[in-house]
Amino acid sequence: MQTYACGHINPDSDSVVSAISLSYLKTQLGETCTPARQGELSPETKFILSTFKLEAPMLKNDFSGDNLYITDYSDLAQAPHNLKETNILGIVDHHKLGDITTTTPLECWIRPVGCTNTIVKEMFDHYKISIPKDIAGAMMLAILSDTVLFKSPTCTKDDTKAVKELAQIAGVENFKALGMEMFLVKSAVKGASPRSLLLRDYKDFEMGGNKIGIGQLEVVDLKVFDAMKEALFADMKAYKEEGNRHSVILLLTDIMVEGSQFLVVSDDESKIENAFNTKLLNHEMWVDKILSRKKQVIPVMEKQF
């Protein structure tokens, strides 16, 4: 029976890097663990792995008969196939507690911080295990990504402390400059298909018996989407029908202006309007200061449903 660490489907950088960092830690503690991922790498994640010369985790969507450490989620909607046939050893996450259950006790590190890699950093400190320079650098950028360069309301003092300590280990003098370079890569959408953009950072959620899909694209200038909104809306509508979803929402987040343009395809747009006290115009609306799907969007949406 093999042991893996793996994050959610449509993996973001935190999901991929936390699988790498946690696998290394567990292996150092005497439990051989292999990092895995449930989906293709985003341009941002490729940038992180390339910058620090790390190999991509193996692609794996079924862990039947294996041991598994879950990172960066605890919702069944984001889990691999046949999870009931998987022996879950632990969960390391910074989101709300989801609906995954186990038949035996498990290790849990769940904290209200901005990034799962911040928690993994605390685990390294707890066990007094040194972090290699390459993994430290990747963890640092994953935290900067998830906290939107410390601008997100999810960011805590623990996140900023972790970034500074990881930057020192990785030998990165100007982590903010490297973080901005990463976000410029993340903002590059030219040539990408509407479906790949929708799913680049996308999650399905169960809310009041309804399946709600929410994606997010963080860029430094929303003008990059001007010529592609029509295609995005068409694909969102198709994806909604394919999965029998109540709503599909795509957040176009401007990290410089600090707010999000919502693109909405829904059976009941009033639910989204009421959640944010803002009217949709042609299925779009701007909501100031919205940067975090986890903290600012999901909780108010769940109340509506």
UniProtKB/TrEMBL annotation:
One of its GO terms (molecular function) is metal ion binding. GO terms for cellular component: cytoplasm. Its cofactor is Mn(2+). Its EC number is 3.6.1.1. Keywords: Hydrolase, Manganese, Metal-binding. The keyword Hydrolase applies. It catalyses: diphosphate + H2O = 2 phosphate + H(+). InterPro entries: DDH_dom, DHH_sf, DHHA2, DHHA2_dom_sf. Residues 179-305 form the DHHA2 domain. This is inorganic diphosphatase. It comes from Sulfurospirillum barnesii (strain ATCC 700032 / DSM 10660 / SES-3).
